[in-house]
Amino acid sequence: MSYDHRQGNSPDSASLQEKRDDTKLEDGVVIGPVLTAGTEFNREEGPLTQPDDRETRRIISKMDWRVLPICSVLYLFSFLDRTAIGNAKVAGMYDDLKLNDGQYATALSIFFVLYCFAEIPSNLVLKKLGAKIWLPIIVVFWGLVMLFTGLVKNFEGLVAMRLLLGLFEAGLFPGISYYLTILYPRAFIQLRIGIFFSAATIAGAFGGLLAYGLSHVKTADYKGWCFIFIIEGILTVVVGVVSYFLLFSGIESATFLTAEEKQYMTDRVKYDGNEIAMNDEFAWKFVWAGLRDWKTIFILITYISCLTPLYSIALTLPSILKTSLKYNAVDAQLYSVPVYVVAAVTVIAFAWASDRLQCRTAFICLGSAISAIGWGISYSMTKSHPKIGYGAQFISAAGSYAAFPGIVAALTQNVGGKTKRSVCIAIIVGVGGLSGIVSSNIFMKRTAPYYHTAHYINIGMNLLCFTSALCFAGLLKMANARKQRRIDSGEAARMSAQEIADLGDESPYFFYRY
C-alpha cells in the first residue's frame, strides 16, 4: 500500500518562480533549479542536482558492491555467534557443563539484557565516530568474547560470556540499519536491508555446517562444542579488523565515488521526499522526539511479534530436529542447513518485490501468514508424519525471516532526521530484541518432544504481527491525510524553512510510505 502524495505543493516548488540551468556536470548529472528573484531561499537550501532514475540506479549499483558485502559478512558473524549456543548444546555443551533446563534458558536469555540497553548509546556513538571506526571496534570485542566462551568450564562462566556478547553485539544491527539509511534513498532501502539480513539466514546454514565439522574435533582438554566458539571467535576478530579497511562513514567519504556522484547521491538522500532538508544535527530534542514517536512505539508490536517466531527457529531449530524429529546430534546440525538456504532466498525475493512495488505492509502480512501456517503444520503433523514436520520448518522459517526486513524498512523510511532515526532504530532493535527472552523460554523440557506450548505462542505472535502491520499502515494513511489538510488549508505555507527542517518526518511535506 504505497502512498502517492500530491506533487508541487511545497513552498520551494509551486510557490517559487524558478529559472532552470540545464548545464551538465562532467558525468552527465543535471544541475538542479537555480532559484532567482522572488524568493528568500538560498541555493544551498535545495538540491544542486535533479533526479534521474538511470543515474540513480547506476550510482546505487556502484555503492552496493562496496557496502553490502561487508555489511552482510558482519551480520552473518553477528547472528552466527549469538546462535552458536544452540549448535553447541546439541554438540555436548549441555552435558559437559552439567546444565539444567533453567540454566540453559538463563544462558540464552541473559544475552538480551545488555543487548537491549546498549542499542541507543551505541547508535549515538556511531553517529559521532562514524561506521568506519565504531563497527570494527564492537566486532573485534565480541569476537574475543566468543573465543573465551569456548574456554568456560561452568554455568557462571557461560552466563558472563553471554552477557558480554550481548553488550558488544548490540550495536551492529541497528548500526548497519542506520548506516544504510544515510547512504540510500527510501525507495531502495528494503532490498538492501533484506540482502544484509539474509546473512542471518545464511548464518544458520553456515553455522550448521561449521558445527557439523567442528563437532568431530576433540583434544585432551577441549571437545567439539568448545571449538565451535573458539573458531567462530577467531574468524570474527579477523573479519572485524578487515572491515576497518572496507567501511566508510558516509557518502562524503566514499573514495570510490567522484565528486559529482557524491553530490548527486547526497541530494537524493538529503531531499528524499522533501525539498527542504531535515535538520541532521545532534540535539537532545531530537533524541527525545525519537523516544516518544508514536510510530516507533507502535511498530515495536509488529517487530516483537515477528521476531519471537524468528528467534524460536534461530535458537532452537537443531533441538527441534533432534528432539521432535528424532535426528541424531550430527544430522540435526546438517539438516538445519537447507531450511536456512530456502529462507535466505525468500528474504531476497520479498525484499526485491517490496522495493519494486514500493509496498511494505503486504509483504509483512504475507510473511507472518506463511510463518503461522508453518507452525500450524508443525504442530499438527510432526508426531504422525515427521517428514511433513520437517517440511514445516522450511515454511515457518521462510515466512518469519522474509517478513522481518519489511518491518525495519517501514520504520526507517518513515522517520526523518539522522539523530531521531538512529534513536528510533535502536529502540525497536533493543527493546524488540527482548523477544529473544520469550523464544528462549518457551521450549521447555517438560513440553518435549513436540513443544505444543511454543507452537501456540508462535502462531499467536504471527497473527499479532499480521494485525499490527495492517493497523500501522492505517495510522500512516490517516497521518498523511492530516498532512494534506495542513497543505490545503495554507497552514504549511506559513511555516518557515527552519521550522520545517526541525519537524523532520512530521513536516507536512514529508509523506509516509507503507
Automatic annotation (TrEMBL):
Organism per entry: Violaceomyces palustris
Protein name, entry field: MFS general substrate transporter
Domain of life (superkingdom): Eukaryota
